[in-house]
Design brief:
disordered N terminus, four-stranded mixed β-sheet, about 450 residues, D-Maltodextrin-Binding Protein, domain 2, globular
């Protein structure tokens, strides 16, 4: 026998449980149905049986729209609610600019999936998105993710996303065949690259054609660790990137890797879509990426191959560079001026239920930002290196740098890497872009420099 159970206005089919289970579910419904926000965000608890199904629109990076975590969440919601989610996929290299522009002119979807941090300021959340402070699921968030979801003390999004560890993915079979050991320093890393090159294997795949996969954010973590007050000084116009020697070290690292041939012979034409095949072919030994990629992308196309890869630190920066990067959290924001505000909030509340979250994350090789989730599986690569990851993980700082753009910064790094401009010129261009964003936001310190 099966019983219909209501979850915040959404009809969900589930097996009949004992009275205690039913009581707990009822209590959960009551808890999640209560909210102290403004009228537009209150949940009325209307049932969908007699309601006309609606189509909610969701805008996101095109690469994110096919991620297992999002596709599973949408499938569950559509099956349980009778509503539909229409995806609007934006190009990876221009997604930040496009979302900011569409927000500025008021042409955004019911739901937006985007990174937080200082990027929230570009979206003017108080004017455009529902304040989710006080939602029942807020207490389920881990402490590490909370600052990334907030602006001016208000919470704006649900971080239904992967929590990965970034480092250097390397082919263990190739290393074993050539008698190579995981490097302990940047010097040893360069030596490994040279041995791989001499063996006819491109040391590292770099999707340079797409710009953003240069991922200079990893180098900025190195810079921040060695420059006290780095982010705050940049954001208050007390410091320029060009003033920091460690930033030059980061750009020079790319130039060194490129000129020595460690990115292979065709890195300027390599794109992100070609990474899975490149790793599977054995033509490339390493890539800067995150552990979850091995399972969400590589394993998905070539089952059984993820276990061939390990996770070593990143060596981007000066001679002492050696680090892993902690996770970045994407979050779902609700357009407060949309046609389906109530339904969009119900969508978020549905996904935020512990039983739904656990079903979404079930068996996925990833971390999570929710205390209640226990069904996920950390990747074997993470578990194998947990001791070193705990010691060497730096928080991702670029989401908190005003004016930092993965694409724009990557563009100047690429030009310096290939010799089109000097390292100094590249960094000055980064500063110019960063300061213009700050001026556009009206940050006083940039209008009235010290």
């Amino acid at each position: 026998m099966r019983q219909a159970v209501r979850h915040k206005g959404i009809k969900k089919r589930m097996p009949l449980r004992a009275c205690v289970g039913a009581f707990l579910i009822t209590a959960m419904v009551s808890l999640f149905g209560c909210n102290e926000n403004e009228d537009a965000t209150r949940f009325a608890g209307d049932k969908l049986d007699n309601a006309q199904p609606v189509t909610l629109t969701l805008m996101a990076n095109q690469d994110w729209t096919v991620r297992p975590i999002l596709t599973k969440a949408i499938e569950m919601y559509e099956n349980d609610s009778g509503n539909r989610i229409e995806l609007q996929a934006l190009p990876i290299d221009t997604v930040d600019t496009l979302i900011s522009r569409r927000v500025a002119i008021g042409e955004i979807t019911d739901i937006v999936l985007h990174f937080g941090g200082t990027a929230l300021s570009d979206l003017r959340p108080a004017r455009n998105f529902v304040d989710m402070s006080g939602e029942a699921w807020e207490s389920d968030l881990t402490d590490e993710v909370r600052p990334r979801l907030m602006k001016d003390g208000k919470l704006y999004g649900l971080p239904l996303w992967e929590a990965s560890t970034s480092g250097t993915l390397y082919n263990k079979r190739i290393f074993e065949k050539l008698g190579l050991h995981v490097p302990e320093s940047q010097e040893e890393f360069f030596a490994v690259c040279e041995k791989l090159k001499q063996a006819g294997i491109a040391p590292m795949y770099l999707a340079s054609k797409d710009i953003w996969p240069l991922l200079p954010q990893f180098g900025f973590d190195y810079v921040a660790e060695r420059t006290p007050g780095f982010v705050n000084a940049l954001n208050t116009n007390k410091l320029n990137l060009a003033d920091v020697p460690a930033v030059q070290d980061v750009v020079d690292w790319y130039r060194t890797m490129y000129t020595r041939g460690y990115f292979g012979n065709d890195s300027v034409n390599n794109n992100w879509d070609g990474l899975v095949d490149a790793l599977h072919s054995g033509e490339y030994a390493m890539v800067m990426s995150w552990d979850v990629y091995l399972y969400s992308d590589l394993e998905a196309k070539y089952p059984g191959t993820a276990s061939d890869f390990g996770l070593m630190p990143l060596f981007v920066g000066g001679s002492e560079a050696k680090l892993y990067e902690g996770p970045n959290a994407a979050m779902m924001l609700v357009n407060k001026n949309g046609k389906h505000v109530k339904e969009a909030i119900d969508f978020i509340r549905y996904l935020a239920q512990p039983d739904v979250l656990n079903e979404i994350y079930r068996g996925m090789n990833t971390g999570t930002y929710f205390k209640s989730v226990t069904t996920n599986k950390p990747t074997p690569q993470y578990l194998e290196n947990k001791k070193f990851i705990d010691e060497l993980t730096y928080p991702s700082v670029t989401p908190f740098i005003v004016g930092y753009s993965q694409y724009e910064m990557g563009k100047w790094v690429q030009q310096a890497m290939t010799g089109a401009i000097t390292t100094r010129e590249a960094i000055l261009k980064m500063d110019e872009f960063r300061k213009q964003v700050a001026l556009d936001r009206g940050i006083p310190e940039f209008h009235h420099p010290h």
